[in-house]
Design goal:
Blueprint lengths: L1 E3 L10 E3 L5 E2 L22 H10 L4 H8 E4 L8 E4 L12 E2 L2 E2 L7 H5 L2 E8 L4 E8 L13 E2 L1 H7 L3 H14 L15 H11 L1 H10 L2 H4 L4 H9 L1 H17 L8
């Protein structure tokens, strides 16, 4: 989910969608373009995507990140983008693509789950608020857009079981938006502070060790009922990590961590 400049929103390609607006789409194996959208992609992975994929593949975070992720720091950015590494073949297919379709379909990333709709966060600096904006944006080769099945944003999200993904991505987008300003010293993300922030966002296994096997719970006050949730829920631990980044990097107050 990308941060969108309010002045650029009318210039973005695709059909804007609001609650109640409808669009037509259906993807199935009889379409000539089936699986073509799973090739040669810059597919952004958000923290919850990594959490779910590494669980589905029964991998620890470290080997998952090593094998399946490219971490890209773009000029002018102060926090890296995380992209799924495509397979090493001529078509540069998604590594989880088979002839029959997606092999990790129940745990596919938010971008795949939402396709052909794209979401972004419109941050309004004057009021310090944000608003989700959505666009119907299938690629030119997509034949599914000519099907007759009708959807709204809500019915499509429900059909794709995307609600939790969308919520988690929006929560992360709000944190990442803070990095429009540079919080680092001259070492940037390579500094110990930068590495800690990346760990809290994308490496749930190492962050769990940090919380429960270091002096973290002695240095910070965290309510006992929340600690119990963090021990059993990856999702709660990830949200806690987002909150900790806000406090650790930016010094923002937290109702969960003292």
């Amino acid at each position: 989910m990308k941060s969108i400049d309010p002045e650029m929103i009318e210039k973005l390609p695709g059909m804007p969608l609001k609650a109640g607006d409808t669009f037509h789409f259906r993807c199935h194996k009889d379409l000539a373009c089936f699986n073509q959208c799973c090739r040669n992609l810059n597919l952004f992975l958000y923290p919850y995507d990594v959490l779910r994929l590494r669980r589905a593949l029964e991998m620890d975070s470290d080997p998952f990140l090593e094998k399946h992720v490219d971490v890209v720091m773009r000029p002018g950015n102060h926090f890296p983008d995380v992209l799924l590494r495509m397979a090493d073949n001529d078509a540069q297919t998604c590594p989880f693509l088979s002839a029959a379709g997606c092999t990790v379909y129940p745990d596919r990333p938010d971008t795949c789950r939402t396709f052909p709709v794209e979401h972004g966060m419109l941050f309004k600096a004057h009021s310090n608020t944000s608003e989700r904006v959505s666009f119907f944006r299938p690629p030119d080769f997509c034949q599914g857009r000519h099907e007759t099945q009708t959807w709204t944003l809500a019915s499509w999200a429900d059909d794709q079981e995307a609600a939790t993904y969308n919520q988690m991505t929006a929560r992360w987008a709000a944190v990442k938006a803070l990095f429009e300003k540079n919080p680092w010293d001259s070492n940037g993300m390579g500094s110990p502070k930068g590495k800690m922030a990346f760990m809290a966002a994308y490496n749930i296994d190492r962050f769990r060790e940090f919380v429960f096997q270091s002096s973290f719970l002695k240095r910070y006050r965290v309510k006992k009922n929340l600690v119990k949730k963090l021990r059993v829920s990856d999702r709660e631990l990830m949200l806690f990590g987002f909150e900790w980044i806000r406090m650790f990097v930016w010094g923002l107050p937290s109702s969960s961590i003292r």
